[in-house]
Structure to design on (113 residues):
């Protein structure tokens, strides 16, 4: 009986390795809306890939401006800019790749949520 329990536990631990580990920003990486447009969209991500390019922002990091735009730690993000989307989980997300000076994608809660 003990070998069966051990084998079952080992198999359950291997599931994340077999299917890939879930990331907290997976709703961004797997949605075609947030993937690159044009040549090879499955290879070239628009917002982020499975690495940690997209991070949730802590409370207080974003100020909603009267214009409807956002101040993210001193960076002005215009609501209508390319790469600015409503957040699917109701949180603020900031996507920036290493070496870039500005955001690549920004996700915000809908007004009133």
């Amino acid at each position: 009986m003990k070998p069966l329990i051990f084998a079952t536990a080992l198999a359950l631990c291997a599931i994340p390795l077999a299917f890939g580990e879930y990331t907290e920003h997976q709703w961004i990486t797997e949605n075609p809306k947030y993937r690159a447009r044009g040549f090879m969209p499955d290879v070239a991500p628009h917002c982020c890939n499975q690495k940690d390019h997209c991070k949730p922002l802590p409370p207080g990091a974003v100020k909603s401006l009267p214009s409807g735009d956002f101040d993210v730690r001193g960076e002005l993000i215009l609501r209508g800019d390319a790469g600015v989307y409503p957040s699917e989980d109701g949180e603020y997300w900031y996507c920036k790749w290493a070496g870039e000076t500005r955001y690549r994608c920004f996700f915000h809660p809908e007004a009133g949520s």
About this structure: The mean pLDDT is 75.
